[in-house]
Amino acid sequence: MTWTRRAWLRSFSASLLAVASRDLYAHLGTGPVEPLLPAPDAWVVDQTGQRRRLADMLQGNVTALQTMFTGCSSVCPLQGAMFGAVQEGLPRLRGRYPLRLVSLSIDPLSDTPKALHEWLQRMGAGPSWRGAVPAGDVEKLRTALAGRAPAENIDRHSTQVYFFNAAAQLCWRSPPLPQPEEVLAVMGHLAKA
Length: 193
Hints:
alpha+beta, Glutaredoxin, eight-stranded mixed sheet, 6 helices, 41% helix, 23% strand, globular
């Protein structure tokens, strides 16, 4: 009888925490994206120089996407290191869909496919970690990802991770600079969905 009551209290507390967290995340622009949003309609050039639609790059994979630029010396190396740690944890995750990491440059004037390729090499990127540079309106793309207008100064870009399901739909936004374990938990959940 005591165990049943404790189990009920734990379950009730977890439910309250989940609802409170969802409301807090929604206020901060993090957490679940409701309704799910299609990938932004944008053309990108990947680190090999191939031009393609962002949605096509995401389609069929559970993807964690970060924004960055190769000339950044403040948070982008931290973001790269975080994705490096996530990359190491990907083999532990099992699901119905392949997993992919994407580093999306927000500085198409300076970031060429070659520069992006070199940045990915410095970060230790493997085959499941791709890079891309937008071939169009960067501010429109950043706004679509974040759900709000981006900071005007490129150095103050978002450090959130944006999660897409295998149908290339944006379904989750992380808090700023998430821990690798948090990224892996969301990806693992989406891979099983």
